[in-house]
């Protein structure tokens, strides 16, 4: 009994001493941890679990060394966006998002947009055999991948280099109008003429609405009329001018010459009026120019001047070498065969950047048109990797491009440096629409002062965490100190803005509609076992002489086609003569 007593005493006494010490110790704020508590009273945001990641985003081997030999190639149905890097037994593995969603990538300069995100995606897209269009502001992407696409994957590369047009493939801005006018003249099918008219209007609208156009305000009449005038002259040049003269610079030259007055005319009318009078009443070129035709002389001159001012950017001897010759790219081949299109533009020269949205918009529209006539959906997915999307001039009807392409298996991957670039180019509502159309968002490597971190932090949501307070006081009688501790639940962002800004190099956050965000890793292309071969170069081509359409040739062609069968189409069978006073009122000369 005494032995058991001493044993119990040896156990109880130290425990009592420990309790006294702990109870007398002051409570510390560091003991309150921000752990998740409650039932989501202030938010249930969390990162996706490994099980959820595995179910939503398949993992596949990333083996470019085998793919380039034609081995273990993924099927085109498995095409997707590379959003994560893992390594199993020494083999690189890629985490994929295979949904039909547009993906917005956000990273500042030097944040890894190209070498960490774009290069692995281009390699996987090539392996899947999917055509793509890629913008390139430095010339690195086409030099590194055009040769690999051609030699290793059997793609046909097209390079439109706005920096060095003599080292570029050709791209005629009105080639679609030329194409369908020629098909209409061969077959007589009205649907071809309708397509030519459609692309003439789209091209004219893109030209007028470029460079951040805001609608014209009180001068909207002149811009709308100029748009119709440009579309009208595009149709006339494509229909009546020789093949070598059918290009956008001829359109500029014709409009400039039509502004002059005919000295042989009794009323000193412009050549524009003379040309339009020779067209049959139902010709669409006459209708498109109707607003300019109906305007008084001074207003018509303003309309023509507006059209000329929007076409001035095309007056460049180097750019003419790229845009005044037949196209090397056929959009039908882009949709049905393995094609890689690289559009290279200078970062510093703003005078040439306006062409990038025009070219991409045309390619995009023609791909949609092709899909509409072939089951309303492309058989193989097509990607538009739009690097430096925020640096380029605003795309005409950008919001419609996002909504129209997704259902037709045409996906965009705009890559920007900051969300503020979207608002600057497209306005507040346009930027919001673009962000909502991109159901995938991936970001990382933001600037220390980036305001996008606050918005991205809000988009990640809040979680409910533990918080509390500690109050310390002393008893007046005994002088003994004491501490009281209280706890409460508060909302905390899943990631604070400073945590987003300080993400290590190679760490990214991926957000997807109806899924929890994922913390992912992307490595530099060399860690993916991507080997860049010898740089792809296009040899410099000699300057070619350019033929321009002339007013005399155009008027003569129209006269020969329509006037020979009706030599006096303007003599009305009536004795009515317009009052001379009204003519003087409409003429301010």
Which regions are unreliable across 5 or more consecutive residues at pLDDT < 50?
565-589
Q: For the record, what CATH class of the largest domain applies?
A: Alpha Beta
CATH superfamily of the largest domain: P-loop containing nucleotide triphosphate hydrolases
Give the count of structural domains: 3
Main-sheet strand order equals 6-7-5-8-9-4-10-13-14
Please tell me about this protein's structure:
The chain has 589 residues and is an alpha/beta fold. It has three domains: 2-26; 50-171 and 328-457 and 500-528, Rossmann fold; 175-316 and 550-586, no CATH class. 44% of the residues lie in helices and 16% in strands. It has a nine-stranded mixed sheet, sandwiched between helices. It has a three-stranded antiparallel sheet with strand order 1-3-2, covered by helices on one side. The chain has a two-stranded antiparallel sheet with strand order 11-12. A hairpin with a 5-residue loop joins strand 13 and strand 14 (518-521). Helix 6 (175-187) crosses helix 8, helix 8 (220-240) packs across helix 13 and helix 18 (398-406) packs parallel to helix 19. The longest helix has 23 residues, at 2-24. It is elongated. Mean pLDDT is 85; it is low at 565-589.
